[in-house]
Structures are given as structure tokens and as C-alpha cells.
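Re: that backbone. C-alpha cells:
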């Protein structure tokens, strides 16, 4: 992709304490428009805590979060989502009494933006998201009939149907087999390319994150210990520790 200079999301010296232990400590980052930023590190490194702070699930003990130069620190999750920051959780939480289409339509009804620049209904946006996810042929199926990968794609489709500027993804590859990982990795890249959406992606499957992200940030013990292109992080000693080490601290 062509070089970008528009910072859409930033964190400034974010710190989060649980009791007396810091799950995040002075974490700063910048994400440019249309970029895929990968967040990696051992269990307990603070990755999910960082997503929770960005999305408003947690309020930082110190520091601030900026979205399109607006301070969104401490705002409620629904308000941050309406501004254009969507969240995809690690474990799918579909509405089991609803169809695949109805599940994704919920996102369109909540967000109400069409990133294609068109005037469209919630159903139009949901159907577009399902086509992008490769699930349009199952639009009328009960969501409970889907396999794990398909349920994860419904979660991603519901987030994208909101028309977000930024999508936060937490371990999209967890529980998937190698073929599903390859398919999901290509899908995330296609989402970025077609919708020009910015993606911040926490992942433990190194093949996926190193193959899809343009930049990678490594967390360990709640601190940033390395960052750069996937190649740079792979060669960095701190990045290697973050990929393979363990972290007995409060954040995840």
C-alpha cells in the first residue's frame, strides 16, 4: 500500500493498575489510517487489557486514548463504538435465537455508517458484510448451526456492518485449524483493502500476524519491548522474548 501519514488512533503513556500491579505501564502507540497493527506477547502481557482500555471497557489509571485527535479516554464503550471504533471479542457471542443475517444486521442498526459511501439500509450493509465474509449463502441459517470459524466471521461481519474507522480484533485465529487460519488471515487483509478500515489485532498465531500485519508491537509485563515491521520484530531480541516468554502479571 502507499505510504500513510494520517494517525487515526493513538495511545499516550497508558497505564492500568489492578490492585498494586501494573497490567499496562507507559504504553504509547500510533496507528495510521488503513494500517494493520499486530499486538503480540505472552499470556498476561497486557494485550487484551490494552484493547479494553481503547474500547472503553476499562478506564486507564493514567494516560489517554485519542481517536481522530479526539480524547476518548474513559468514554463508555457504546459511545466509543458509535464514534467508529468496533471491537471483535476472542470468543464469539452471537444471538443464538437469530439468523446469521439478523446477527450482522444488529451492527448495521447500531452503527449506521456505510464505508462504501452509499446510502443503504441496515439489511444492505449486513448483506455486504456477509458477502465479504463468504457467508452470504448462509444468511438465513440459524447462527448456532455454524462452525467456530464461521461464528468468528459473523462477529467480524457484525463489527464491520457498523461502518467503523477502526476495528479491534482479539485472537481471531484461536481454536482454528491451519487451513482456517490461512483463510481468515487472507480475509482480514481483504477487509482492510476493500473497506480501508484500520485494524488493531491481538494474536498468538505468529504465522498469521507476521503474514498480515504491516507493523507489530510487542508487549511484555505490560510494557512495549519491541516494535516495527514483522521482519524487524522477528530479528529483534526483545521481540523474540515477547513471542516466546511468559508473563505472570495481571493483564492478558
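Recovered sequence:
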Amino acid at each position: 500500500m502507499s505510504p500513510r501519514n494520517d494517525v487515526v488512533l493513538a495511545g499516550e503513556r497508558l497505564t492500568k493498575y489492578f490492585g498494586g500491579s501494573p497490567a499496562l505501564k507507559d504504553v504509547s502507540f500510533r496507528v495510521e489510517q488503513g494500517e494493520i497493527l499486530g499486538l503480540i506477547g505472552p499470556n498476561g502481557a497486557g494485550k487484551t487489557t490494552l484493547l479494553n482500555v481503547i474500547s472503553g471497557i476499562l478506564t486507564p489509571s493514567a494516560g489517554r486514548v485519542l481517536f481522530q485527535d479526539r480524547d476518548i479516554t474513559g468514554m463508555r464503550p457504546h459511545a466509543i463504538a458509535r464514534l467508529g471504533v468496533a471491537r471483535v471479542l476472542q470468543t464469539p457471542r452471537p444471538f443464538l435465537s437469530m439468523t446469521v443475517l439478523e446477527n450482522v444486521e444488529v451492527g448495521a442498526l447500531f452503527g449506521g455508517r456505510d464505508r462504501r459511501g452509499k446510502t443503504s439500509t441496515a439489511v444492505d450493509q449486513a448483506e455486504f458484510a456477509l458477502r465479504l465474509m463468504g457467508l452470504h449463502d448462509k444468511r438465513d441459517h440459524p447462527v448456532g448451526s455454524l462452525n467456530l470459524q464461521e461464528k468468528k466471521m459473523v462477529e467480524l461481519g457484525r463489527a464491520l456492518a457498523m461502518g467503523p474507522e477502526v476495528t479491534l480484533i482479539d485472537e481471531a485465529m484461536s481454536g482454528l485449524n491451519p487451513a482456517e487460519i490461512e483463510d481468515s488471515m487472507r480475509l482480514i487483509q481483504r477487509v482492510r483493502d476493500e473497506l480501508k478500515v484500520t485494524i488493531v489485532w491481538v494474536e498468538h498465531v505468529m504465522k498469521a500476524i507476521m503474514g498480515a500485519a504491516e507493523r507489530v508491537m510487542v508487549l511484555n509485563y505490560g510494557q512495549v519491548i519491541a516494535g516495527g515491521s514483522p521482519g524487524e520484530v522477528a530479528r529483534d531480541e526483545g521481540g523474540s522474548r515477547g513471542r516466546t516468554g511468559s508473563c505472570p502479571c495481571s493483564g492478558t
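The CA atoms of residues 172 and 206 lie 12 Å apart. Confidence is low (pLDDT under 50) at residues 244-250.
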